[in-house]
Amino acid sequence: MKFFIAGIMQGSKQESSIHSQSYRAEITRALQQAFPDAEVYDPFAQHNNSLGYTHEEGKRVFLTHNRMCSTDVDVLIAFLPEASMGGAIEIWEAWQNGAVVVTISPMTVNWVVKFLSDVVYSTPEKFYNALNDGSLAKFLANQNSRAIKRSLDNLSEQSQPVFF
User: Fold this and answer.
1) Contact 128, 164 (CB under 8 A)
2) Which tens digits make up the pLDDT trace of 102-123?
């Protein structure tokens, strides 16, 4: 199983800075413990100096990550304590191409979270509990990842998200 960790980086910052990325190491560690054979891709771990990239390099990395979400991952884990435009694009790419979208966010009424997630944990603690007690593994085992391209044409075939 291949996981991609999406989440807030720049958020609504207007200066060239990022939010704390400590959540990424915690999520990676927890996923590797719960799914020892899984591949976990953390874009920040691979590109932690991305704010210093040239325009061309930044664009290449941004578009490559979006393509990865649409073609290369089974499960996208989105950490969104607040809105993230990049995170929303990664969620969209994963969702429409059939990857399972697991969102960790208190924004349960936000339409991106509400309509493009397969499961939503309102707090990191609820997510970690689901990893530790095996309920997320059971949920993922029952998903048919990549079995269907999701779109407006097949909304009736798609399940509603589960909220915790």
Assistant:
1) no
2) 999 999 999 999 999 999 999 9
